[in-house]
Write a sequence for this structure.
């Protein structure tokens, strides 16, 4: 067995290919406002974008529900994560939180999680986003500036921007 932990770098990167070629699983959490089981992504992390510095980003960051758009408190986000479920490609989560559907025919459990699924403080959430929109560069510098990650990537032109500096593998 091989257990690997790494950031998803690009759609052609090995990590992304392993996730998509495997179970392509997602962490779903219930919204305390609408009850939908959702998987918040980077675009659901708001409030930090206009910050001029880390402290402003920490003070203003919050998560919104992908389904209803409601702003979550940090306590609501943590409570939702205590009820998380893992669903695989081809599966759905019912309103009562049951995962239904066939298991994917694969030996590879590949899933993404992001900082929304962390029980760290909202200040750490903001730190995940605020310095993240920097192009890839010196990984030693990135390790100092990216304490946590949104665990995804995006492109702007031909530049790939990433969210995590560390990648490790244990066998």
């Amino acid at each position: 067995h091989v257990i690997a932990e790494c950031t998803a770098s690009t759609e052609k990167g090995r990590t992304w290919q392993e996730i998509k070629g495997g179970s392509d699983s997602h962490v779903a959490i219930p919204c305390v406002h609408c009850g939908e089981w959702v998987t918040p992504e980077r675009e659901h992390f708001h409030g930090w974008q206009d910050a001029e510095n880390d402290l402003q980003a920490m003070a203003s960051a919050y998560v919104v529900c992908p389904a209803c758009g409601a702003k979550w408190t940090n306590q609501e986000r943590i409570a939702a994560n205590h009820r998380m479920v893992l669903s695989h490609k081809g599966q759905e989560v019912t309103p009562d939180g049951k995962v239904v559907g066939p298991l994917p025919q694969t030996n590879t459990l590949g899933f993404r999680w992001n900082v929304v699924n962390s029980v760290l403080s909202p200040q750490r959430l903001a730190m995940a986003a605020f310095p993240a929109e920097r192009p890839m560069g010196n990984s030693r510098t990135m390790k100092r500036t990216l304490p946590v990650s949104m665990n995804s990537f995006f492109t702007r032109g031909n530049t790939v921007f990433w969210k995590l500096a560390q990648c490790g593998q244990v066998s």
Summary: Residues 132-156, 158-171 have pLDDT under 50 and may be disordered. The longest helix spans residues 14-21.
